[in-house]
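Hi R.,

Here's the input for the flavin-adenine dinucleotide complex you asked about:
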Amino acid sequence: MEIYEQLKKYSDDVRRDEPMRKHTTFRVGGPADFFVSVKNKDALVEVLSFLHENKVPYFLLGNGSNLLVSDAGYRGVILQLTDELAQIAFDGETVRAGAGLQLMRLAAQAAERSLSGLEFASGIPGTLGGAIVMNAGAYGGEMVQVVESVDLFFPEEGIQTLTGEEMQFGYRHSILKEKEGVVLSVVLRLHFGEKETIIDKIADLKEQRRTKQPLEYASAGSTFKRPEGAFAGKLISDAGLKGYAIGDACVSEKHAGFLVNKGNATAAEIYRLIREVQQKVQQASGYRLETEVILLGDFE
Ligand SMILES: Cc1cc2nc3c(=O)[nH]c(=O)nc-3n(C[C@H](O)[C@H](O)[C@H](O)COP(=O)(O)OP(=O)(O)OC[C@H]3O[C@@H](n4cnc5c(N)ncnc54)[C@H](O)[C@@H]3O)c2cc1C
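And here is the predicted structure with flavin-adenine dinucleotide in place:
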């Protein structure tokens, strides 16, 4: 049976040649052979088992907010988690949420219930699943601080629940950086606080982002990880690269740690800019910047 027909067994939303620029915050990326929205855990486990057994390449997409997809796109199946896989349930200070849930929505709903702990995440434009994989963090907060346990699917072992400790969180790191697996849902431990204080904190962090980050342009946030003992943005700025551009791919003037798409950049241009920035920063400072952004597809 053709792959398309197989995939239709697990989802009523299967697309061919789906432009990935529609699904990434960089607004670049060519077509994915197949794009599948998966609505519940059973369907997800079945489709993942099918893809694994048949050695069909697949990629779990969150919100595409830390992703650079090549102009040639992706030869395989993109999976996106929706519906039941993006639900949320509160029980006192404990929250269980699906991996497909938007982190901003989660933070806002927690604040609405006077639950503190996710204020730092209120401006991160990813899904909960993506935030777990990346151990997303900002302004002194990180996912590791609020995760109690994570339900995952591993193709070889099946569904497992790992504690926060077993997730091996580190700076922009989790066990999923080393081992193939999919986040299904997460249990978070928050704590009751004063609603007004929580809401004020969120508003304050939002204002800090608005003034310091180039939110008016498409980007994937900080392109590079923070090297030990330095800041990527400062190293890039000190190398004289603020505003440096290849086509519409540009080092932000406002925050040099962000590479932005000023309109019609291609993935190839952004990629070349990444490489040039790395080379020039290394020449100027000796630091080798590592990308935080994940590359998908062929680039060289
Ligand atoms: C304007 C802007 C500001 C940002 N600010 C911050 C910030 O302050 N702090 C920060 O840490 N990041 C920041 N980011 C980067 C980004 O939002 C985070 O890294 C986020 O956690 C990525 O989530 P995502 O759902 O978009 O993941 P994607 O970019 O879609 O994917 C990231 C990785 O996670 C994997 N993945 C996604 N979902 C699952 C799943 N369910 N199971 C297994 N793997 C999965 C993907 O396969 C991929 O490897 C920012 C980005 C932008 C555009």
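One thing worth noting: The longest strand covers residues 31-38.

Cheers,
M.
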